[in-house]
């Protein structure tokens, strides 16, 4: 906490943005607690860390720590930034959890969200290589990251608007529009019941994907905050959209919104904690395989659908051994 206080104090001393000046002192001085019900309200009712994240100045200044944490060659500075990043993520987790507790309509978000980026040729090739791997290897996780997406595809496509710098001086295309189409799915009520019956004190939330339109400076963007996402890549193809002169690379991803990051997880015994971790991972894997199978079938990827079915059956077999 001392590292984070020092870092934020430095930002405050140089800040002239009203969001920073308003919310950074609250982050430093307020008490943040994981609410257990609506009768226990945190000292920081303004959800200051979420509000900082949604503001341009707050994102650029605060979450820059995460982006730079592993890029410095100064080991001491790297350690300091990593500590700050971990603590900031924990504060944001608390805000997201309390927000979903306070606002029922923000819980268990399911649906399709979009994220538009522009990739270099090398970055695009990395994803093509990933898409060519066996289905069981077409995934990646960003456990320390927070990522913004929108329920409005046009918001994501605006990232490409006016991109007149996609070519170099020779006319060679060096930057490529790339659309992430992310299908956010919840853990089924059946699977949740199985987990909760075995580990009733372990809290499962849906802070993996939280709509934050009501807290954002840019409400018109219909933002959904993705926390520490694990993505399964189902399909990568080119598509043509209205208003786009050329085809855009689009990848379809599956993400589960369920999350166990909560103090109750740490209160389990070592043996219970490991059993809970394995069961939860198995249930999430089964759910993900089910949805991937459906999406692959929708895109007529017959062989992939069959492989996802095998993954589901393998998960089901593992589930049987875990609960036997």
Descriptive account of the structure:
With 324 residues, the protein is of the alpha+beta class. Helices cover 47% and strands 17% of the residues. It has helices spanning 2-14, 18-29, 48-54, 56-62, 64-68, 75-102, 121-131, 153-157, 189-198, 263-266, 270-298, 302-323, and strands at 111-120, 139-141, 146-150, 175-185, 209-211, 223-227, 230-239, 248-256. It has a five-stranded mixed β-sheet with strand order 1-4-8-7-2. Strands 3-6-5 form a three-stranded antiparallel β-sheet. The longest helix has 29 residues, at 270-298.
Q: Ranges with pLDDT <50 over ≥5 residues?
A: none
The level of helicity is 40-55%
State the major sheet.
5 strands, mixed
Q: What is the number of helical segments per DSSP (H or I, 4+ residues)?
A: 12
Mean pLDDT: 84
What proportion strand? 15-25%
The secondary-structure element order is HHHHHHEHEEHEHEEEEHHH
